[in-house]
Write a structure and sequence with these properties.
Number of helices: 6
Shape: globular
Structural class: mainly alpha
Helix content: 55-70%
Order of helices and strands: HEEEHHHHHE
Distance between the termini: 30 Å
Number of strands: 4
């Protein structure tokens, strides 16, 4: 990924964070809070996403991140589906590829379903997801982690 492409994806990642609202069975979840802060629990989840795709493959990683995780009262945990949603939003916004997961605003679900239904060559999507995960990781670190 060259510098121009990385800069474009960084802008898309920031847009995705700002517009993201994920409705889950436990309520509404988003990575970027209204005060401009991000829970530091997301830092690890976002950092591990791209590595997991590279090591385990696209479908296994999406399956893990698609699961909703309950927040613990003693130690808050990142909602992994929010991470998946943000990456799917970036992929959809990227005009360099032809993936649109915006149907009904269910970005994470649509990307997961697309991957399951297209068991053929997912190389282009895998590359795009890894590049978007890198951009998200970089942009998250520009915010205040609390």
């Amino acid at each position: 990924m060259d510098k121009t492409r990385n800069n474009k994806l960084l802008k898309l990642a920031d847009e995705a964070l700002r517009e993201q609202v994920v409705r889950t069975s436990t309520g509404v979840s988003k990575i970027l809070k209204n005060n401009g802060e991000i829970d530091k629990a997301y830092n690890g989840s976002i950092a591990s996403f791209g590595v997991s795709v590279a090591m385990s493959g696209l479908l296994p990683t999406l399956a893990i991140f698609y699961q909703e995780k309950q927040d613990s009262a003693t130690r808050p945990q990142a909602n992994r589906r929010s991470v998946l949603d943000a990456i799917a939003r970036i992929v959809t916004k990227d005009s360099a590829v032809d993936f649109d997961f915006s149907n009904d605003g269910k970005y994470a679900e649509n990307m997961f379903r697309h991957t399951i239904e297209n068991d053929g060559d997912l190389t282009a999507l895998k590359t795009e997801v890894i590049e978007c995960a890198i951009a998200l990781k970089q942009i998250v670190r520009t915010y205040n982690l609390v």
